[in-house]
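Appendix B.2, paired examples.
Example (i):
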Amino acid sequence: MAGLTPTGLDIKRLPDVLEDIVASEQTNIDPNIVARDDELLGQLNNIIAVALAEQWELAQAVNDNFNLLKAEGTNLDDLGALTGTSRIGATKSSTASQKYGGT
């Protein structure tokens, strides 16, 4: 089942969204309905499914920004602010000069 679960967010992918649309059409319109990609209904279903799948992906992106291991940039800074943690500022790095003395 897609959505928020006890283990986290489980999103629907494009094939699942498309399958749900066709199943709903078969339930609510006609059990024999066929939505092939080369027909108008199939093309409309694909357009709608892409938009809905993008909404699921947006929900995933929002959810990921509350995960320290997945957040980045400003979102990571914002997450750190919620926990009272700030990033370590940029510092210069250095190394001892090493020369390859190959044979």
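Example (ii):
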Amino acid sequence: MNKAPLVTLDSVSCRFFLKKGMFRRRSFIALRDISFTLHRGESLGLIGRNGAGKSTLLKIISRIYHPDKGTITFHGNVSVSLLSLHAGMDPELSGTMNALLSAMFLGFSKQQALDKLEKIIEFAELGDWIHEPIKTYSTGMLARLGFAVSLQLSPDILLIDEVLGVGDQQFRDKSMQAMKDKILSTDQTVVF
């Protein structure tokens, strides 16, 4: 069965500039000539050493970064969620408020976010911490909240950037099982 394309990258390159002194800088090429198409329902794993450009590629797909060269084309109105520690969260706001705002940043209405809030809170298992500012959260607690939001709201493309490598083993196992269930039962596209 031929699945519909969601996003196409064509010869995408991205560079960063590093300051080398008061008036000097040098460029660092994070990605060079990357081309592929992601289709609905596909899962893609990115493998590479530290500094290979995996996170940069996810940020380009999530529209946080823009390529210096090449094109990225979204086929239709595609919702994308980048699950990364601290991505898009306000440290001064509570877990509840961050969950609602994250959902709305993904393109869901306030009512849709409110409708899913109870399930998000339940999955995250943060107890009364959900009402505290996330600047008081541990890395594992942030991962729980971010994962719970992305899992419950089902964007067209879910990008997961090393976030399941933190937190306690029980929550990692629960999250991996939830991802497997979701991938097998839906047409969601996932990039790890």
